[in-house]
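Re: weekly structure request thread

Next one in the queue (79 aa):
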Amino acid sequence: MNFVLERSRSRLLLMLKIIQFKILPYADNLIALLLVKVFVGLGNKYQQRIIGNNFKYQQRKILDQILEFSRNYMKNKMP
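Done, posted below.
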């Protein structure tokens, strides 16, 4: 069980870094916008669970930055 949890955490960090550096800079793209929208939904659903699992500071910081950017982007860009 512990091994599965560690693998999930490492995959989440990889996903967060991909979103932060590969998707958000091109967020005017429709596909990127949809991915951001999906991520906001997932982030809102699992944010407390993720932070509650004693994630490292860097992982929490990246998640918070992406969620903040995504929410602001959605407020400003979506009708």
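Residues 40 and 61 are 15 Å apart (CA to CA). The radius of gyration is 13 Å.
Next request, please.
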